[in-house]
Amino acid sequence: MGTPTQITDTPPPAPQPAIDKRAARGATRPGDRIFLGLSRGSGILLLVIMAAIAGFLTYRAVLAISEDEGNFLTTFEWNTGVTPPVFGIAVLAYGTIVSSIIAMIIAVPVSVAIALFLTHYAPRRLRGPIAYVIDLLAAVPSIVYGLWGALVLVPHMNGLFGWLNDYLGWTGIFSWQGGAARSMLTVGILLAIMILPIITNVSREVFRQVPQMHEEAALALGATRWEVIRMAVIPFGRSGVISASMLGLGRALGETMAVATVLSPDFLIHSSLLDPGGGTFAQNIASKFSEATEFGRDALIASGLVLFVITLLVNGAARAIIARRKEYSGANA
Amino acid sequence: MAKRIDVSGLTAYYGSHKAIEDISMTVEPRSVTAFIGPSGCGKSTFLRTLNRMHEVTSGGRVEGKVLLDDEDLYGTGIDPVSVRREVGMVFQRPNPFPTMSIFDNVAAGLRLNGDYKKSELADIVERSLKGANLWNEVKDRLNKPGSGLSGGQQQRLCIARAIAVEPNVLLMDEPCSALDPISTLAIEDLIGELKERFTIVIVTHNMQQAARVSDRTAFFNLAAVGQPGKLIEIDDTERIFSNPSVQATEDYISGRFG
Asked: Which residues belong to any copy of the ABC transmembrane type-1 domain (chain A) (predicted)?
């Protein structure tokens, strides 16, 4: 823009009329003003709601925890009806995290495989119908999953559990005494089916957006179809798949009715994933809330606060993973 | 390394639409052949039949013969994947793999082809980047992403990636159309050097570029929109631009249409 240092005798140019800030924001016409107000209001409302939830949970939780006779984080017990009350979230945290991890281990690879099949392998006329069926899976209410899990999945798990016990029982985490299969592994499998559609759909969308030119670059180097997927499609879609998985994980962590219907809860951490028992935050709240006293409800809310924090941490971790790979994400291609 | 391309009676379709019809030509090894012609005349389609990229597009199919020395690329039992390992391609828009570093971009094709020792790989990457006149600009940041380079550098990176696997033929589909004049000049100089080692075919809309870089020029045209593109003539570049034998060619290069 011209020469930066030019010495002249002329006085500095008269100040330009300052650009109207409101005009620069595009908020002069009534329509713009209304839309600006609406969109800004929505943004603020969201923050207010989040803050209100956090505030409410924290306030009630503090009331409960201050009365807790046991250690809130390490106690294997949930007894809010006695004085002094003794309760802790250790079992719930373990059950929530373990069942969600099992669900993720099963659902993420399967979802990514389905998404790749739909975008890169399936014949064009099969893509629509298959995607539609997967969407239907997402539309099934969770109580229906729960009923199906309790009535169909649980009785049919015995074969798998026996096999796992025979071959992997020595590890401890797959040993089985032969009880009903109302265990963490069954819950994990059920959750995997429930989060499969969302992970599949988001991954499919991401894989579909891989620019043609990246795939052609790989093809022109003599890549096979699988090599194209490995070189161009999966790296491009990685951060999207991580986001998709986190959406699924969020659902798995908070899933209530399906878990409550399938699990036979107790307040122990079982070393084997096949032993019935355990519990999750959401399941515990749902099972106990209706019969809880005022204080019991506060205690349940305290456990809800922990779930809230875990979910926030998971989302934060996902964002950190995505941000770390940003340079290579393909967003700047 | 460089091989002769011998095309006879080649017709290419998109579904039922005939894109190019009955094209025959010979491209000599270690030469640069430029394809010129108006938009839609099928020169890019023809280029993509030379490494079997045309059939990647849905509905794309080809009739006719393309001989690379004596091997028919469309012969029975020929794997398109192995054809593409022999015939490299550079695209209109620079397309380095965004998730890979500069080094990995150049090494990508080699890693597909087999096992190389780390030191071998480093040697070939260096040689290819030098071959693409990019080494001095990137030697200190080989581990940085390729997408951080300027457009012209990215295109030279793509050329380095293509020549790293030592193809017999290098196809370039309007390689400079997304670049500024200085980067274009760098690529044109590079083409002059690369033709010592490779058979090069380049599609271009820029007639000065065709005149500057090529030994032979082929002019493509189509009778009307919807009609298949045809090869009008192919001759020494000098002759095409001074005294072409077909009136349509002269009209096109002198700017009377197209």
From this structure: 93-318
